[in-house]
Write a structure and sequence with these properties.
Number of helices: 12
CATH architecture of the largest domain: Alpha-Beta Complex
Helix content: 40-55%
Radius of gyration: 22 Å
Largest sheet: 7 strands, mixed
CATH superfamily of the largest domain: Spore Coat Polysaccharide Biosynthesis Protein SpsA, Chain A
Order of helices and strands: HEHEHEHEEHEEHEHHEEHHHH
Oligomer: single chain
């Protein structure tokens, strides 16, 4: 094969990958970028907030009071003390005495029976007194006193899932910016798809659904043996084209402390990526095509630049994609209050094609941890 033919093939591939990327940005991710939520009046219906906590004394002290002090008339907070051996139990007893709407469910460790978060969460849901469930984690704090109201107002006869945004706190350093960018990068995808009637995941840091939906689905039965996925696998299994809504009003956000080391983030990310293998086929194809075109867009771009084939065309293609990406991401980041990291998009966009394939490949050689 001559260099000229090889160059034409590479240029054609670059154009094809560019076209796929542009379709995703303009026709899917733009749904979040230009999303205008219709005003919904809160009905102030009773709600049960469910939190699982395992040795989370510090986080409970920091975050639980703001959850117990929501501007809402009728709600309860259920904290499942999941076999903690620190002073979480003592702290929860104190809070239970001070807040009548707090209910603590305590689990004791058993040598012959080990369980994961799904078991603890299921017990918390069973103990819930109300139909509407709002789930978060012990290391999350709500954006304000109207978090509960904003996250539950969309529940209706037709909507029984509400997907919220779980942000990470802004601190100094490049790692913090990377973790937040990765969070936004994924949120743009799953929030846009949910708006488009194709919800495939949510995050347990900020997720709302109904108790009847949980029991109709038999809880986490179909994926109970998978260690992770109490949030995204449940949404992937139960969401339809009509029953899921999103909530991105700033007061509906939750905030968590990000990992303080890159290795810790890598281990967390590996667990998240591993659950993607259990998504519905159409969602695996949709996500796979996006990431495949993303990675090979850059590979063919670099190959063409190295071979010095039509560099002016190649660079123009890159700049057009970058402009569209920055425009769409900028709109999305405005809504998610993450505009300060927009300028790092070109750099982090390349980091994604270097890090994600490594994580995905490593998961092929490590069996997903299962409970027996």
């Amino acid at each position: 094969m001559s260099a000229e033919i090889a160059g034409k093939i590479l240029l054609a591939l670059l154009s094809a990958f560019f076209l796929v990327q542009i379709i995703y940005y303009l026709f899917i991710f733009s749904r979040l970028a230009f999303y205008k939520k219709q005003k919904v009046t809160s009905k102030n219906r009773p709600v049960s907030i469910v939190i699982c906590a395992r040795n989370e004394l510090k986080n409970l002290r920091a975050n639980l009071p703001s959850i117990l002090d929501q501007e809402y008339e009728n709600y309860q907070v259920i904290v499942v003390n999941d076999c903690s051996w620190d002073d979480s139990g003592k702290a929860l007893e104190e809070y239970e005495d001070a807040y009548p709407h707090l209910k603590v469910v305590t689990l004791q460790e058993q040598e012959r029976y080990k369980h994961g978060k799904k078991f603890a969460l299921a017990l918390g849901i069973k103990a819930a007194a109300h139909e509407i469930l709002l789930l978060t984690d012990a290391d999350c704090r709500p954006a304000g006193r109207n978090w509960l109201r904003e996250m539950t107002k969309n529940i209706s006869e037709t909507k029984n899932i509400v997907i919220g945004y779980g942000a990470y706190e802004k601190t100094g350093g490049l790692l913090n910016k990377w973790i937040r960018f990765d969070t936004v990068f994924n949120a743009v995808q799953y929030l846009s798809c949910a708006i488009n009637g194709n919800a495939y995941m949510g995050v347990g840091r900020n997720l709302c659904y109904t108790r009847s939906l949980f029991f109709k689905n038999k809880g986490f039965a179909s994926h109970y043996h998978i260690l992770s996925g109490d949030d995204d696998l449940f949404v992937n299994e139960t969401a339809t084209s009509k029953n899921a809504a999103v909530e991105i009003f700033p007061e509906s956000f939750t905030f968590s402390k990000p990992k303080e080391s890159f290795i810790a983030w890598l281990n967390q990310k590996k667990r998240h990526i591993s659950t993607g293998n259990f998504y519905k086929l159409k969602h695996r194809f949709m996500l796979g095509l996006f990431y495949f075109s993303h990675i090979f867009f850059y590979l063919t771009l670099v190959a063409l630049l190295i071979l010095k084939i039509k560099p002016e065309i190649v660079i123009s293609i890159y700049l057009v994609r970058l402009f569209i990406q920055l425009f769409i991401f900028g709109k999305c980041m405005q809504k998610l209050k993450e505009m300060d990291i927009l300028w790092l998009t070109p750099f982090f966009d390349v980091c994604i094609i270097l890090i994600y394939p490594i994580l995905a490949t490593s998961n092929l050689f490590i069996k997903n941890k299962k409970w027996k």
